[in-house]
Design brief:
Helices cover 28% and strands 33% of the residues. It is an alpha/beta fold.
Length: 269
């Protein structure tokens, strides 16, 4: 019902005892006066975890779960074992991020990024601004040229694959590895899939850098995303300083909100 009323919704925010919120172009609006019941949150989590919240405890420790291409952020009371976070209970709010297949103002940037000389591309933006949507569109365009694109879909958010069939169109020439850590998936793709391009979402930990190095060392083009507002912002963080120092990426694309749309900026690295 919320998506019927706000088809451009980017997030749905559900907080116990408060009206639902809808995020559009970074701004949150509230959908009426009816408040959200705790049972609603539990129903959504049961559905998203296949009626097995207990089995999803490791994912909940990370603050979110993935369900058919949706990322569902979870808040509640921490369950601690000594100094270790082991789960969440007494759930109080959910943030459901809605993926989109169409880019707002991004068609022009795709034309330049899929040129033969474009090389490896790093996409950066703050959370929720659209880097995964751009990566998905870039994969779809490149894999329809055709080129062979191996997709390392660690959380099943890029493809939302169910029973071997992706919900999102990633192009005819794409092959998707789901649930495999990037460092391991990179070797699997390089050894078994003979890709022209390898794509991965969200470089966030040191092990991901190993995957980047392996891919670059084999002469394969890489498409990837990272959290950051711009190049200066990324250079402030040790992980991304090291990533940039590898010299793998020839281009950085940053995304920022402007009004109800996005601005895509491309810079050489």
């Amino acid at each position: 019902m919320i998506l019927n009323r706000w088809p451009r919704a980017e997030e749905i925010r559900l907080r116990v005892g408060r009206p639902p919120g809808v995020v559009i172009a970074g701004r949150e609006l509230f959908a009426g006066e009816e408040t959200v019941a705790r049972e609603t949150l539990l129903h959504i989590l049961e559905r998203a975890t296949g009626a097995s919240l207990h089995a999803s405890a490791p994912a909940l420790r990370g603050g979110y779960i993935s369900y058919q291409g949706l990322r569902i952020g979870v808040c509640g009371e921490a369950v601690m074992t000594g100094d270790t976070l082991t789960g969440l209970r007494a759930f109080s709010s959910l943030s459901i991020r809605i993926p989109h297949t169409e880019l707002t103002g991004g068609a022009r940037i795709l034309d330049t990024l899929t040129e033969p000389e474009a090389g490896s591309i790093l996409i950066a933006s703050p959370p929720g601004v659209g880097k995964t949507s751009l990566l998905r569109a870039l994969i779809r365009r490149a894999a329809s040229v055709p080129q062979r694109v191996a997709v390392l879909d660690e959380r099943n958010e890029l493809s939302a694959t169910i029973s071997g069939r992706p919900f999102f169109d990633l192009g005819q020439g794409s092959d998707v590895l789901i649930g495999v850590p990037k460092s391991q998936g990179a070797m699997m793709a390089l050894r078994g899939l003979n890709p022209d391009i390898i794509a991965m979402d969200e470089i966030t930990k040191p092990a991901d850098l190993s995957a980047v190095e392996e891919i670059a060392g084999c002469g394969v083009t890489l498409f990837a995303t990272a959290h950051g507002r711009n190049l200066e912002d990324m250079r402030k963080r040790p992980l991304y300083r090291e990533l940039l120092s590898l010299g793998v990426f020839g281009q950085l694309v940053t995304i920022r909100l402007r009004g109800e749309g996005r601005v895509y900026e491309r810079a050489a690295l």
